[in-house]
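Appendix B, example 12.
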Amino acid sequence: MKKMNLTAVLERENDGFVSLCPELDVASQGNTVKEAVTNLREAVGLFLETADTAEIEERYKGEVFVTHFEAVYA
């Protein structure tokens, strides 16, 4: 069994949350943070099980950094 360490980025949307795995460009959603991450884990797992190796390698971005920054505007 293979394992990958991936990133989950979550954003509140209306009454729920959208979750994104930026390394593979796979997204999901849920009513809570926990549910959104669980659903994303399932979506990524299904993608990895069904995609061929070439597609996984093409989509996979090995390094993803998440940070905050300040923007100044008028």
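Residues 33-50 form the longest helix (18 residues). The chain has a mean pLDDT of 96.
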